[in-house]
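Budget justification aside, the reviewers requested a transparent look at the raw inputs and outputs of the sequence design task funded under Objective 1. We therefore reproduce one unedited record. The lines immediately below are the structure tokens for a 610-residue chain.
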């Protein structure tokens, strides 16, 4: 709703109207098309939150009183006689949206009635303060408008006398909004069985070609003609719907009048033909080439559906009577399977399809339960077995490898062969090897890098040094172990999985409690060529792999599993590691001690997978 100027206020205060608020679901019926209009512009409700005193609010329902059925009849119908065809009028919608009102007409054709969508009370249009202050009615998704809110309306029941062929009426779309095309109006015809058979569609662009950005705009006059020749001597229903789009603001409606139930041919350009005023002449259109033009054909995209066609049991209106499967055509057992369409046969042309038939995997609803290839929630089609191992995609944890399936023999191969969720469970034999220089063929290299003698290549010295030197310089040492006794004999498809790797070194003296860190190295070195100057600490990782406390005489150990894994898998060349400590203390370690048992050791536990 908008703040209206004084001249518009005086007009609206004297319009004969019925405030109607309604909702109709999507019907797939013909929509109004063919108008030359601007593209819709998003409506930013937040930019319109203006406050007005109640005396400034003008709109449908102002000064409202209760409206009788007789008043509504006279407002909608073109004459008293036509009013007699209106048998009932029922408003519906959320609370506060069902009230009706009427005021003497002025400035509009006599008998015009007014519909409005309302986020609040349609009877008095009370909007004190913010125009968004009305109670929000639940919105429903819509493929065109995003969401429709505050939906309500009126059902008008109309008796169709014998000899009648159509119901016609005029309407104009109205909107209180600076942005056109925002809030849809839909008008729908229902047959005597309550089935929707024709609709104007929930579009308003055709009705709003004169929108000029004012507060209130009234669209061009449109005439709707609904075909009712198939419903003679029955009561049909027309549902008038106005819906608010997203913003809960009182800003859409329509003027309707001149309702008539009459005979004669259906005009081209009517709602049945989908036309705005400038739509193509549908009398010349026969899209499905069935000999019946678009004005008369109720489905001009299917040559089997047209007036005069034989009605068959298929849930379609084959003969354009407005009723699907009429005259009990579904009560004939066409396929001789003992069940008719009246009794639930969903395909009476195939004796293998009927209630009670076993559902099989064939893309068809064999048992007529409304589900294809399903019994309840259970599918009847097994997924494919891509690798041909006898287990389908639902059961096989790897349907691209025939050696992997539930119950397959587990191999030591880093794979869950038997699909039990455990990799290599219990089949990989672990071996542990301790490499010590001079013991069981083991060999290693070590070099002390001495800060007091920066160019001296100490070679295979008796010990390794870390920390501060006697001259106040830094000492550190390199270690590397020969891993060939582990890699020897491995095949090209064998993989090593290191489970643990432990480096141990014997503290010879200076049992201070200070951390010594282990740093993986990234450059090659030689035992008899490396010196403090030519192999700086920057050749090794700045961050240590692990560390150990060197306090007390005896062996101390560090975890080097990550380094050993890189060396043995080929992820990193074996350049060994460097021992370092902060230059506030010093340690001396045996490298070629009094006995080989005191030499540094590397114990690696691993298994080989194939």
């Amino acid at each position: 709703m908008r703040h209206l100027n004084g001249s518009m206020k005086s007009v609206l205060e004297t319009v004969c109207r019925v405030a109607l608020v309604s909702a109709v679901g999507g019907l797939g019926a013909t929509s109004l098309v063919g108008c030359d209009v601007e593209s819709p512009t998003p409506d930013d409700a937040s930019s319109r939150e203006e406050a007005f005193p109640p005396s400034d609010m003008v709109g449908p329902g102002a000064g409202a009183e209760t409206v009788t059925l007789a008043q509504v009849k006279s407002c909608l119908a073109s004459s008293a006689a036509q009013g007699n065809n209106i048998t009932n009028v029922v408003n519906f919608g959320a609370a506060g949206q069902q009230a009706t009102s009427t005021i003497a007409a002025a400035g509009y054709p006599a008998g015009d009635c007014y519909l409005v969508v309302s986020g609040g009370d349609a009877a008095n249009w009370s909007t004190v303060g913010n125009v968004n202050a009305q109670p929000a009615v639940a919105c429903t998704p819509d493929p065109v408008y995003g969401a429709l809110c505050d939906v309500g309306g009126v059902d008008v029941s109309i008796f169709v006398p014998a000899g009648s062929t159509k119901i016609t009426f005029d309407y104009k779309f109205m909107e209180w909004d600076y942005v056109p095309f925002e809030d849809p109006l839909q008008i729908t015809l229902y047959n005597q069985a309550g089935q929707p058979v024709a609709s104007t569609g929930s579009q308003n662009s055709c009705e709003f070609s004169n929108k000029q950005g004012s507060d209130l705009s009234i669209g061009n006059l449109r005439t709707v003609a609904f075909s009712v020749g198939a419903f003679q001597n029955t009561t049909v229903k027309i549902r008038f719907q106005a819906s608010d789009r997203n913003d809960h603001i009182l800003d859409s409606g329509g003027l309707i009048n001149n309702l008539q139930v009459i005979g004669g041919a259906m005009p081209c350009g009517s709602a049945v033909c989908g036309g705005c005023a400038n739509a193509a002449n549908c009398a010349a259109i026969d899209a499905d080439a069935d000999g019946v033009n678009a004005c008369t054909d109720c489905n001009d995209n299917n040559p089997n559906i047209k007036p005069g066609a034989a009605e068959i049991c298929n849930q379609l209106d084959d003969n354009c009577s407005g009723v699907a499967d009429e005259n009990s055509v579904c009560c004939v057992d066409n396929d001789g399977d003992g069940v008719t369409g009246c009794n639930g046969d969903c395909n009476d042309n195939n004796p293998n399809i009927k209630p009670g038939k076993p559902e099989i995997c064939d893309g068809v609803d064999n048992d007529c339960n409304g589900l294809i290839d399903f019994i309840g929630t259970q599918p009847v089609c097994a997924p494919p077995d891509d690798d041909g191992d006898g287990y389908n995609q639902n059961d096989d944890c790897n349907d691209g490898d025939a050696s992997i399936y539930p119950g397959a023999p587990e191999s030591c191969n880093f794979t869950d062969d038997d699909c039990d969720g455990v990799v290599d469970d219990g089949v990989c034999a672990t071996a542990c090897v301790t490499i010590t220089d001079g013991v069981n063929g083991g060999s290693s290299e070590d070099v002390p890098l001495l800060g007091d003698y920066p160019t001296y290549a100490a070679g295979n010295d008796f010990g390794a040094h870390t920390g501060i030197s006697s001259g106040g310089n830094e000492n550190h040492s390199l270690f590397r172990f020969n891993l060939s006794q582990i890699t020897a004999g491995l095949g090209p498809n064998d993989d090593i999985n290191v489970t643990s790797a432990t480096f141990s070194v014997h503290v010879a003296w200076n049992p201070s409690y200070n951390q010594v860190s282990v740093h993986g190295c990234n450059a090659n070195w030689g035992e008899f060529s490396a010196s403090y100057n030519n192999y700086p600490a920057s050749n090794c990782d700045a961050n240590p792999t692990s560390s150990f406390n060197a306090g007390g005489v005896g062996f101390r150990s560090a975890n080097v599993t990550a380094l050993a894994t890189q060396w043995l898998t080929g992820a990193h060349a074996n350049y060994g590691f460097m021992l370092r400590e902060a230059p506030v203390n010093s340690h001396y370690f045996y490298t070629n001690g009094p006995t080989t048992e005191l030499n540094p050791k590397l114990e690696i536990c691993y298994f080989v997978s194939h």
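The first strand starts at residue 51 and ends at 52. The mean pLDDT is 73. Computational costs for records of this kind are itemized in the attached budget.
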